User: Fold Sugar ABC transporter permease from Streptomyces lycii.
Amino acid sequence: MKTVTAGAAAAPGAPPPVAKKGVLGTRPWVAACFLLPALVLLGALVLYPIGYSVFRSFFGADGSSFVGLDNYGELFSNEGIRTAIRNNVIWVVLAPTVSTALGLIYAVMTERIRWGTAFKLIIFMPMAISMLASGIIFRLVYEQDPDRGVANAVWVGVHDTFAESSAYPGARPRPDSGMARTAGGSFTTESAVRAGDPANLPLVGIPPAEMPKEAAGAEQARPEGGKITGTVWLDFVPGGKGEPGRIDSGEKALSGITVEAVRDGEVVAKATVGDDGTYSLPAAADGAQLRLPGSNFAEQYNGVDWLGPSFVTPAIIGSYIWMWAGFAMVLIAAGLAGVPRELLEAARVDGATEWQVFRKVTVPLLAPVLAVVLVTLMINVLKIFDLVYIIAPGATLDDANVLALQLYLSSFGADSDQGVGSAIAVLLLLLVLPVMLVNIRRIRRERRR
Assistant:
């Protein structure tokens, strides 16, 4: 029997030695060559900025002096940054939750209608618009002027349907008319009126261009036995040719105004001015004071100040939901398509109502998809910047502030301090990490199933 000594050639017919390969059958150095460009980019675009931001956050504004944790203390002592943190909490709670809920409702509803595909297309269409364009659109939507802002145009239209608007906003008596302003924006005569004496009430403060085109000329009221009569009119003639306190030719009647007779604080009679500006009160008004209620002159309802300090953050969140509810709907609809129909039908056969089927069968089966959508949107809103910067006007930008915007303002705005900006970037990273870890754990659990 022959033996082979060390270093001797392999016996004839033996297989040649094979180089070791990885699990996927690829040589490790070949895999490393393919991964190297991606790893270099990952390090340059992700790891290095993170590391440098952490390093820079321990230095002052000019980067030359070490300040330790002072920049992190500034995050919780600066009022503007605290507002940004509070607004970010509001964003994380409201925006993903409402977007996911709406996406779920849309996905379930569109399953039972024939034009569901068209509806989904319309709802998803805002995703094709950039954040910049959406911000510009909603800046116009939230304009205060109802003639320009769609939101206030609708709001004012609904309000005016259920509440009467004032007849002549901004009108007031002449200073020498014998009337004084009283509670509630009303005007009351300083002395009592008597039957037979003309009780004319001249008003000013209405631009002729804002008078109704159908307004008739004012007429002098005729005396009526035992009654109080008078005229309410716009005591103004273009060019200043009229005489104050007298009904001149060309002066217009203020029809529709309410005139009240008040005695001891109680209304004893009431009348509405006619088309010619005249009114007539019964004998009960004799010896009473005349009052023009403030409802005649209240300024027109101008809608809601959507971009004011109170509503600016909810308003911007509304624009975000308009964009991202379609994204949630598409993902949830894809998950809904994979739900076994036998389970839904079995629940209905067992007597479950549609609400019970939705709540106890559909939603639990869609829980993984809902978690994906919710986590994705939470990460997205933590870095929201564009919409806030574009929609919020300068006067309320501080009230709508969020961390990503504050990072930009602190790093590159007036009195920039890149140390504080870097600390904000680190804080954002720390806020995103828990959400990412939850998402990674969820993905691993699903792979084990």
Remarks:
- Residues 198 and 276 are 15 Å apart (CA to CA).
- The radius of gyration is 37 Å.
- The chain has two domains: 70-152+306-448, 172-296.
